[in-house]
Design brief:
Two copies of one chain form a homodimer.
Chain A: E1 4-8, H1 23-29, E2 35-39, H2 49-61, E3 66-69, H3 76-82, E4 86-88, H4 93-102, H5 106-114, E5 119-122, H6 124-127, E6 156-158, H7 175-182, E7 190-192, E8 197-202, E9 205-210, E10 214-217, E11 224-226
Parallel strand pairs in A: 1-5, 2-3, 2-4, 4-5, 6-7
Antiparallel strand pairs in A: 1-8, 7-10, 8-9, 10-11
């Protein structure tokens, strides 16, 4: 298998433009490719598929890559078969997964990516690269027919991973507590992916990349930090 | 209908003992009642049903109320029919809702409470008092057969409601953003219930109570604050 994948924690760093910090990553991932399909189904803030696609298209236009929204094709499965690459934007993972399952596209997209077409995800778009979406931070605003996702990597992701903020007396669960609760039910490892970091898959090799270490959670063990540049062998 | 219900944001305030701040509320809600059923299915941190029930029993023992875990009955539906009152503890709302639906108890519990048996919920236990669980903050660590809950009140709850923390550059969605995303899909009003606050239902009257105002979200309108003591007519 010749996988070529980037799964990023976030699309946007604080104070920066959309996808700005990922520009070198995008250039390398989509090298030689002049058009991709954008999957807009996560609809951050309820933005329309058209508006969300226009936002992505604007950022990719600066890199000479044309973007077409998956929602614009009358036969989206055929469009995925014919596509040269993919970007799935962030937003609400429940919305995204519901659409992909209901349109029968989850497996189609998985096959295309496993056959070597480059894929980039950000946030919700990275969650669906994991085995299931059950370590998302998102609110269950719709009911998907299944929580299973593409399993492009042999673990789950928790994008926007955040450490407890010192001095905050709020009694809601911390992110670490939530992921440990997940491990009372499932044994899938979880990569807590801090903002500014991403996972890079090239064939059989999976590495942590970016500006911050990841926090790695495996069932029954203490969590640990993994520095950028390290292989991700869970 | 003679409803008698407390839906609290949290079981525990920072630095306090379990249920401590709710002691006067519990005394009034369960006045004249010497035993209740505890619903332990939300299992915070993966705690066992037995251990969680022991924790609740310890707090209620000081008030002279005996607590029995719903999981200990061979016929839990019959136990609910015969019970004098209920407390559902916090934890993971997906776990709680899955158990209640799979055991066929959601409607049984709803009927018992609507017929006047006192009910207290905390956090996840309050979420199930709403129309559905789709404004929970919890991670979807299991897949419930439905997101529908008891609808004891004509709106949804968001327990542990928290305002954006000034100066934090994290790009994950704020709670307000998530609830607004919910309103791109559904029109059910949402009560953002801050810690230290609860909803009190007495018959047809629903009021906000506690130490902090609630934040009220209705589809298509600006959110607003509602002071303790105010009627909740959404």
């Amino acid at each position: 298998m010749n996988k070529n994948i980037v799964l990023a924690s976030t699309s946007t760093l604080f104070g920066e433009a959309y996808l700005q910090y990922l520009t070198p990553v995008i250039k390398e991932l989509f090298e030689g490719i002049d058009e991709i399909i954008f999957v807009p189904f996560a609809r951050p803030g309820g933005i329309s598929h058209d508006d969300y696609t226009a936002k992505a298209a604007g950022a990719f236009a600066e890199l000479g890559i044309k973007v077409t929204g998956l929602h614009t094709f009358s036969d989206p499965a055929a469009a995925i078969h014919q596509a040269k690459g993919f970007f799935t934007g962030g937003g609400n993972t429940f919305l995204l997964v519901k659409q992909l399952h209901e349109q029968g596209l989850m497996q189609v997209l998985k096959n295309a990516v496993e056959n070597g077409k480059p894929y980039m995800g950000a946030s919700a778009g990275s969650n669906i690269g994991g085995i299931n979406m059950q370590t998302t931070n998102d609110m269950p605003i719709v009911y998907p027919p299944s929580f299973d996702t593409m399993g492009l990597v042999p673990f789950n992701l928790n994008p926007h991973y955040i450490d407890p903020i010192p001095g905050v007396a709020h009694m809601g669960e911390t992110r670490e507590t939530r992921i440990k609760e997940f491990h009372t039910q499932q044994t899938i490892p979880v990569v807590g992916l801090r903002e500014g970091s991403w996972i890079r898959v090239k064939g059989r090799h999976i590495t942590m990349e970016g500006s911050q270490p990841a926090k790695i959670f495996t069932a029954g063990n203490a969590a640990y930090e993994l520095e950028p540049g390290s292989p991700l062998n869970l």
